[in-house]
Each structure stands twice: as structure tokens, then as C-alpha cells.
Amino acid sequence: MSGTSSDAMEQSGRTRWVRYLVLALVAFVMLYPLLWLIGASFKSNQQIFTEVGFWPQNIDFKAYAKGWKTSTEYTFATYFLNSFLIAIPRIIVTVISCVLVAYAFARFEFWGKKFLFSVMVATMMLPLIVLRLPQYLVFRELGWLDSYLPMIVPSAFATDTFFIFMLVQFLRSIPRDMEEAAQIDGCNSLQLLWHIIVPMLKPAIISVIVFQFIWTMNDFMSPLIYLASVEKYPVSLALKMSIGATEEVEWANVIAISVVALIPSVAVFFAAQRHFIEGATSSGIKG
Amino acid sequence: MAHLQLKKIEKIYPNGFKAVHGVDLDVRDGEFMVLVGPSGCAKSTLLRMVAGLESISGGELHIGQRVVNHMSPKERRIAMVFQNYALYPHMTVYDNLAFGLRLSGANKKEVAARVQEAAVLLEMEHLLERYPKQLSGGQAQRVAVGRAIVKKPDVFLFDEPLSNLDAKLRAAMRVRLTELHRSLRDSGQSATVVYVTHDQVEAMTMGERICVLKEGVIQQVDTPTRLYDHPANTFVASFIGSPEMNILQAQVLREGDAIALGLDGQNLLLPEVKAHALAGKVQGRVQLGVRPEHIMARAPLDAPSVAVQGTLRFMEHLGSEVFVHFNIGSLPVTARLGADQLGDLQGKERGQGHTFYLHMGRCLFFDADTGLNLQA
Fold first, then answer.
1. How far apart are CA B161 and CA B141, in angstroms?
2. Domain contains B375
3. What residues make up the domain containing A22?
4. Cβ contact (<8 Å) for A287 and B86?
5. CA-CA distance, B289 to A153, in Å (whole number)?
6. In this predicted structure, what is the pLDDT of residue B282?
7. Is A109 in CB contact (< 8 Å) with chain B?
8. How large is the ipTM?
9. Chain B, nearest residue to A285 by Cα
10. Is A246 inside a domain boundary?
């Protein structure tokens, strides 16, 4: 008996090692471009185009310093600030508008609700590019070109339908008893939203914040279309600019600053990871 | 004070389904009223209509002197305990209790005092700093009750509050809730209770009066003992009591002045008193109701009984008592005997015959078609 059980244990130990080895290999393949990117930020142009490995010969942060300064009169500090000036207000208005709309769809009965919800979901299928031209014309009429408003204001009207969809699904999975208890405790609809629904929606709201932050930081198209002055550029545009500014590109500088550009998104993701995973996977809350 | 009155209350859903059919019910001030019935009998719907969580399609609902049909739950001055407790998961026990008081604008000192008072009453002072997820089922249940008590409502509403607990805890909580109700009432607080359950044991043990519902219609409202001894119809008779009452189809046979019942081939003579009471009411077919404890394995010395031949099916031993399942002809019957009352039934095998004795003085008769109690 003891012989067989220790054999079985040994075998399960072995299969576990094999499993981890395979997982590690796949993870390495997936992460390789990122590792290469970090390695290449310490290399010269010649090394970048001739070497396959990602490990640099010497570590020095010259490229980071150069990349940060840029070839324009502004440093990347300005561009990062610009990115945050777009992302933070946008996240705030997104959360407020999407929670309100999702609350209405998930908890209230009103005329045409099903129709409106399906229209809203249908807009998710719409390629955003088809809206660019009419939107551009509208914003030009409003005199909002070369400002951040075209990137922020639409989100205040709950146009990020994916988030609404996500919040509605999350809300539907929460039993209503808590809300009924709160109603009996004396909450009106808005107090209910603030005291009960929002705290319970927290994991989903954090997911919204993380997604919106990363998407806004990575957004290239909108700033490209709406912004004209370099001093207002966000990181995504500034990165592009550093490639085309001079005739000979110092790739290490561009790569170094790309690495820096990744930091906020990665940091936000890890800071929110615990809640984020909960929000993305949780289908309900126990009473 | 907090006298609750339902007058011709109706619930019709938008799809036309009528769930509650003109319910009239009076719950006296301080009374513990239990609504009981099988699932789908609209007892929870009725409770939610009293709470203000469901709209009322017809009739009038009074709490005290006020008509509350169109009032919000808050204005009705009620408190409700939910089946799954519905504690706010992001708040501590203290905040759960204090939430309603704070919303009503009570000052900090008063909130603290009332929460403390409820916590002492329910012996949960040590739980106040915990979150709901750190509580056991029984503790969460107490917190849910505490949340109702701190509000000092006119009417307490309970929606199957014990059905998520295990059997042992449920029995303990039953006693606790009943005691709590009596002590609140003795202390002069408003303690009108409407308690919904599908469990007839809960109904019988806790209720001062019980309202039995079936498909949105009240079958009977009475005290537990009256319900047990004088059920209005076969539905109430078989719903109350466990194991349930034996309802047997019988033929009424006249033998001179006496009345006998034909039970699948066997004739049982009714005692004179019973026959007298039933004279003129029974003809042709009738339904005979016999409680399992009114069937004996040996002829009783002190009560009139009639003998009937049965065929043993099986026995369930519960320690102090035994449920004996047997057939009279083709009619299945259950008897409930003390373990020491088995006599020579002990050791008999499935399929063997035995003479059982029915306590005819305690039998009930129901109309063969309507199911109504003929002696009521």
C-alpha cells in the first residue's frame, strides 16, 4: 500500500514539474517581445539589427535620458501629463455615466427598455472608424478641435457601451434582496445606488477604470485626428513623433521611451489586479 | 397601535395572472401571525405587498389607522427579515444595524444606544465589528433580526427566515424568536409579527394564529390547536400535522339507526355520538380523516374504537415512536405509535396482516366533492 501511494505521489510530483515547465516555456514565448524590447533599449542601432538574443552587453540608461528629452522643446513629462489629463477626466465621466445607465437597465422597468438595450448593444458592433468623419465635423462646429474635449465629453454620455453591458451583466447577477432591505430601511433610488449598488459593483467598476485607463493611454487615432499642437500631444502621439522627427532614428531612444510608456498601464493593472480579476470572473455575490 | 388589516387584497400580474384572490385578514396588535402554505400559494407575495415591495392591485391595506396602499416601504414603519438575510456585505454588523437609523436622521448617540440595545438582546455584542462574510448562518440570522429590531417598527415581517439553517439551529432559533416576540410584547413595544413559512412545524410552534393559504386563497385562519383539531377542509387537514392525516374515501352505509362506513370492503361502525352529529349530513360517499396518532396497534381500554384489518407495508423507527405504513384493502394508511405500543406488531414482516384500531371519536369527515369539514 505505502509503496504504491509513494509511487503515485512521485508520479504526480513529476507530472507537476512537466506541467510547470511547459507553462514556463509558453510564458517565455509570450513574453519574449517584451523582454526583447527592454533588452533593446540598452543596445545600439547596429546591435538591434544584428543580434537575436535579448540580453544587452552593457547596461546604461543613456537612451532613456535621451528619449525622455525628445527632439521637441518638450520632454516626455509633458506628454505623460497630457495623457493623464485625458485619461483621468475620461475615467471619471465614464464611471459616473455608465453606472447610472447600467443601473437603469438592470433595475428599472420603463417603456422600450428591451429595444433600447438591444440598440445599445448593437452599437458595440459598429466599427468606430465610420463615426470619425461625422464626429469630426460636429466637434469642428463646436470649436473643440485641438482640445481634449472630443476625447472626454462623449464618454460622459455613456457611449462606452461595452462597459454598460459589463456592468448590467454584473448587476443582474447580484440578488435584489439587499436593495429591498435597503428600501425598507428607507433608501430612495439614488441613495440605493450610492449606499448599496456602488459598493457591491466595486470590482466591476475597478475593471472599468483599468480598461478605460489602458485603452485611453493606448489610443492613437483620436489624438491624431483632433490634436494639432505638439504641446498637447499625449504619449502615444509623441512616441510616433520621435520616430519620424530626424532622418536617422536612434532606435534605442524610441524603444527606451516605449518601455517607460508601458509603466503606467502595467502599474494600474497590478494595483487593481486583485479586484480586477474578481470583477472579470465573479458572477455573483453571496448574501 | 399596530393592528394590521388586509381588506380584499388582490394581486394581478401584468400578464393577467391572478396570484392573490381577495384576501381578508386581521392581525391584532402584538399578535404573532403565521402565513403558511405550499410553495406557490402566494404567501411571500402577500408579505411583500404588506412590505411595499410589490404593488397592490386591489383592496385596502391598513397598518394602525393608516391606509398604506400607496406608501413607500419606509413610510409604512415596518421591518423585514429576508430568507437569505440580505445583509449589506460591505458594511460591518454595526453599520448594518445602524444604516436604517442613520437614514432616518437619528443622531450618533441614539444610533449607538439602539444598536447596543439590540446587540445585548440578541447576544451579539462581540459580532458588531465583523463583516457579514465572517458570520456563520445562525449569527447572520441574528444580525438580520437585529436589523429589524433596532428600527422599532410597528410591524415585523419575516420571509422564511429559518429555511437556510440546519435542522438543529432552526429548532433553537424557533424558540429564540418566539421568546423574543413575547418579551418585546411584555416590554410594551409594538410587536405585531407576520411570519411566512412553508414549514408547518414552524407554523404550529411559533404562531399564535395561523393563516393557511392555497393558490392565493385563505383556507383557514385559527389557532394552532383549532387548526389541528378542526381543520376547515382536507387541504388544511393534510397540510397541518406530520405525518399527514390519512384521508380515506369511504362509503356511508345505514344499518338501522346506526351509521357504518365502508372502507374498501370493510365496514366500520361509528360510535353513537359521532353518528348523531353526522345524521343527515352524510350520504353516499364521504372522506374519512384519521390522524396517524389516532390509530393503535392494540385495542385501547379507555376510548371507543373500531377494529380494521390491515396489511403491513413497512415501519419507520424514530426512536421513541414508530411510523407504521400499512394498507386497508388498497388504501394506504400511516399510523404513529409509541415504540412501546407496538405489541405483537413487533417482528411482523412486510405483507403480513394485523388488526389496527381506529379512535373513531377523533375522526373527521369531509365532503367527498368539496373537501369541506362536515362537522365544522
1. 7
2. no
3. 2-64
4. yes
5. 75
6. 64
7. no
8. 0.84
9. B89
10. yes
